[in-house]
Amino acid sequence: MMAPLAFAWRALVRQPARSALGVVGVASVGALLLDMLLLSEGLVLSMQQLLERMAFDVRVTAGDALPGTGADITDATTASTAIAALPEVREVTPIRSEEATMRHRDREVDASVIGVGGTTRIWTILRGRDPTGPRELVINQYATDTLGVEPGGTVMVSAYCADDDAPPPVPFRVAGVAELPFETPDAAAAATLLADLEEACGIRGAGIADFLAVTSTGNPSAAAAAIAAARPDLTAFTNEEVVGRVEQGAFTYFRQISTVLATITMAFALLLITVLLTVSVNQRLGEIAALRALGFSRRRVVLDVLCESALIVGTGGVLSVPVGLLLAVWLDAILKQMPGVPMQLHFFVFEPRTLAVHGMLLAATTVLAAAYPMRIVARLPIAATLRNEVIS
Amino acid sequence: MNRANGVVVAAERISRVFPMPAGPVVAVREVTLTVAPGEHIAIRGPSGCGKSTLLHMLGCVDAPSSGTLMFEGRDIAALGDGARSLLRLRHIGFVFQRFFLLPMLTAAENVELPQAEAGVPARERRRRSLELLEYVGLGARGEHRPSQLSGGEMQRVAIARALANRPRLLLADEPTGELDQATGEQVAALLDRVNADGTALVIVTHDPTLAGRARRVLTMRDGRIEAERQS
């Protein structure tokens, strides 16, 4: 009953409206803080999870740029053969992506078409099956909805692989509906075998790829090093290196914004709790001085204030977690409505480490917010306070 | 030394000077005073004469600017804040004009408070609290909160709290100052009983009736003990 924490609890219950205000304030600020922490790492984590879900763990490009942003690999067949011979490599899949127009009956849609060599598949079948025979492809749900075609149907594909005029449309049978990597909810996408994409482009056997998707034998770093040694003209990226590159690029802005907003929310929490505790302590100076006169140690009365802070921040902090997670789901849905955001990418991603950081920041808030009122209590002149209480 | 001589507290030419912007204010001037076990002392005097300041120094919540203060043979000046807190907790009881009971605790819990701080086991302090509430005539009010008690009842709970750790010295600063005459009389009678049961009692009061119950009455003026009457 008389332990500092229980004592602090009684002090808070004594002023329920003020305590509730503090708890609600911390819950709100804590929820925002949690969201800022989730946002600061969310895209990076989401990108990492997306990359790790794929069937390969090393990407090989022609230059120093990430896949899809630099020059093509012009000897993809030769390079694939050389890399596949490395003991650190299990499989190599050349991947090429081109813009195309797909048509079904009187409906037409612009689409991004991926051509995949080898046996690695980078999509997830939702309905139907993988393309196995010649001139088969899988399309995403948006393409299905827009064209009104289902597995078994036929689409005419006009691919634009060069600056020249487009080759004549090539009929493709829809083998399945799939979720494609980095597809957006408002854009059509398709995937087929690399040879079939080249045929649609009218350049069969060109051996050009955007990048080579490499599956290592279990050690992607060793595979990347081996590839770099075998083909110094190419660059091999592990998933971690891709994430690192992305993290240093556009995602930095989210982290900076999150850091600024998290700092501001922390400052609000600090001010709120400091003001509440200071007002509370100032109203109880006589009682505190009396307790000191009765023999309560300075350490004990300071600990009581710290416990009050811990109870307010702790209760508010616990409440802030579900509130913050619900808010994150809502904000994520809003942000994902931005055009061009891949469906599998999330801005807010939960991971236990974020919760630990959230807890540590709130613990720091507990101590910092209590610092000033604790100082008041620690330096309270007992005799003068008792005298002033009588005079007032 | 003083313990051997049977002195609870001994003040030797103690003064208390408060530095103020307009110049230092001397609240207590070279007062020499001893309190023996079981003594009953009242300190009287006009407002601002230094009564409460002297009481605070005797109770080790304020330190003399000069002079020597010994509590049961220990020089208070040599004790740190923690040691002084412990001394107050175990050997000195305080009763305040405004009671200063904690409103969120029951009467019994208020009495338990100093015992808990002194590390008394829960069962023992519960028993002692009920015993003390019986002693002050509030055995049936243990579960009541201060807001449910009258002024006189609150002061009696405060006296029970002050006695919780069996102090050698009980200090009371205007203990009837907030009470009507009849209630003040009840509290005065209770303090007499506490003293009769062996606790040294020093009361600061404006009330001549309350002061008249003491065996030694000190009258202060301008920080000095102007007169002393023994009965």
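qc> Chain A touches chain B at residues 1-2, 10-11, 13-14, 286-287, 289-300, 382-383, 386-387, 389-390 (CB under 8 Å).
qc> done
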